[in-house]
Design goal:
Elements lengths: L3 E12 L38 H13 L3 E2 L2 E2 L2 E4 L9 E4 L6 E2 L2 E6 L2 E14 L3 E3 L8 E3 L6 E7 L6 H18 L11 E11 L9 E6 L2 H20 L7 E6 L4 E7 L3 H4 L2 E2 L6 E2 L2 H9 L5 H11 L4 H7 L3 H11 L5 H19 L3 H4 L3 H12 L5 H14 L5 H8 L7 H14 L1 H8 L6 H11 L6 H12 L4
Parallel strand pairs: 13-14
Antiparallel strand pairs: 1-11, 1-12, 2-6, 3-17, 4-5, 4-16, 6-8, 7-8, 8-11, 9-10, 12-13, 14-15
Helix pairs in contact: 2-3, 6-7, 8-9, 8-11, 11-12, 14-16, 14-17, 16-17
Length: about 475
């Protein structure tokens, strides 16, 4: 059995969040009735002319700058000719010879350590329509709503050697695109997908093996699975004395296997030539500079800022910087309080649990950063317990966002009970109700202390001061010597 090394490259396609298509004014929306978002231009009717959407160019420049690419100031579009039912014009307007951005890289954190992924280029193009296959119907149906949607394609060098590296790259690219607010990253809707190129070669060789392309992967986990299967399949073919052919394959998520679709086309098959209906695109230096000046903090920059400006642990910073809206929420809350770790704990604890359980976004939850700060201050000042705050006050704030947490505490009578006589009466009542367990405690089962304290807190409906209750229970359980 020969010892092989995998060589992997990705072509990542991201639909841009523009209101209209890249060369037409048709609106861009997901989930609409088939063929309702089309026009004579997007359908390629004779006599129609494309017009470039500036917002798509802005978005491509943003991504290029984030990856450290060289932005090409002089460029043009090309026609990529092929005939397929979901391509209404019979060709795709794309960038072949002069892409908008060249080079670039992204550093990944993998189980084997840091890995730098090098990009070849980034280019703009239009998306195709979509073929629909319904049940056992022998006919294919065509929906052209997606045709003409603005895309960027980010092409890596063949520099990855494991399925894990591809998995981490897709994860980080989705995060970056969402940070830049240029793509929603919803892979299940097809707005982010990838073509995967896999080959194997003998270890130590510098010659690339025969490349196989796996098309239209719209799941990060399935990208990993497809690569793992393809490495195994190609290894078995070569070890059996067979030959691999350059081809396009599909991936079946149910079986975890790839299957041949067609022999891969070559560049000549596409008959590229400059798009005659669009003038060359010239990007002035001030255009690029303006976009650069408006760039948000990137995920890795945000993580560093959370660690150094707010002294958060690396784990907290990693979690909070994973999504821009969570990092922004923390930053806004930190404007009103220096309790940075407490803010982080709430975001990673009760708030994340609430949003995860309901499958909603942080924005949809409706909690104001200032309200969270006020909850933390109420706990810190001893006016309410964390348990009551997380289980009762926090949900109440979501139901009445116009009211302050302090007002809700007063309204519901949730302020901690500090009355010594009342607390002692509650402790006595609980211990009398659990006389058998009191005896067990005094015989050595000290773990029962938490039960007694919990029962007192329950009887007080969470308004008793936990520290004072703990002290009073211990005092009542300690025999007088």
């Amino acid at each position: 059995m020969a010892d092989f090394e995998a060589v992997i490259g990705l072509e990542i396609h991201a639909q841009l969040q523009t209101e209209s298509k890249i060369f037409a004014s048709d609106p861009v929306k997901f989930g609409q009735e088939a063929n309702t978002l089309v026009s004579a231009i997007s359908l390629g009717h004779p006599g129609t002319l494309p017009r470039l959407n500036r917002k798509a160019v802005d978005a491509a420049i943003k991504v290029g700058l984030a990856l450290g690419c060289q932005i090409a100031q002089d460029q043009y579009f090309d026609r990529k000719n092929y005939f397929y039912p979901d391509l209404p014009k019979g060709y795709q307007i794309t960038q072949d010879k002069r892409p908008i951005a060249l080079g670039g890289q992204l550093v990944l954190n993998t189980s084997a350590g840091p890995k730098t992924i090098v990009f070849d280029h980034l280019h703009l193009e239009e998306d195709a329509g979509k073929s629909l296959h319904e049940g056992d119907d022998p006919f294919s149906f065509l929906d052209y709503n997606r045709a003409g949607t603005a895309l960027i394609e980010m092409v890596t060098k063949p520099c990855m050697h494991s399925a894990e590296e591809a998995f981490v790259l897709m994860t980080e690219m989705r995060k970056l695109l969402r940070y830049l607010e240029v793509c929603d990253g919803n892979m299940e809707e097809g707005s982010l997908r990838a073509d995967v190129n896999v080959s194997i070669r003998p270890k130590g060789s510098q010659v690339l093996g025969t490349k196989v392309e796996i098309k239209n992967m719209n799941s990060i986990r399935n990208i990993q699975r497809a690569i793992e299967h393809e490495i195994e399949r190609q290894t078995l073919v070569l070890n059996a004395g067979g030959q691999l052919q350059q081809e396009t394959r599909s991936f079946d998520a149910a079986t975890g296997k790839t299957a041949s679709m067609r022999v891969k086309e070559t560049m000549n098959d596409y008959r590229y030539f400059p798009e005659p209906d669009l003038p060359p695109l010239q990007l002035q230096a001030d255009w690029i500079a303006d976009i650069k000046a408006q760039m948000p903090l990137l995920p890795w920059e945000q993580k560093e800022r959370l660690m150094h400006s707010y002294q958060l642990p690396a784990y907290d910073a990693e979690v909070l910087s994973d999504q821009k809206d969570w990092a922004d929420f923390f930053t806004e809350a930190a404007k009103h309080s220096t309790q940075y770790k407490a803010i982080s704990n709430w975001l990673m604890g009760p708030i994340r649990s609430y949003t995860n359980e309901r499958g909603i976004s942080l924005e949809a939850m409706g909690l104001r950063p200032q309200a969270l700060v006020e909850i933390i201050e109420l706990i810190d000042s001893g006016q309410i317990s964390f348990t009551l705050a997380s289980q009762q006050l926090f949900p109440a704030c979501l139901l009445a966002p116009e009211q302050s947490p302090k007002d809700l505490v007063l309204q519901h009578g949730w302020a901690l009970n500090q009355d010594q006589d009342q607390l002692q009466a509650l402790v006595k009542e609980v211990l009398n109700q659990h006389a058998d367990k009191v005896k067990a405690y005094q015989q050595g089962k000290k773990g029962l202390l938490g039960l007694f304290v919990g029962e007192v807190m329950k009887q007080s409906k969470g308004t008793a001061d936990p520290k004072r209750v703990n002290a009073l229970v211990l005092e009542a359980l300690t025999p007088i010597s």
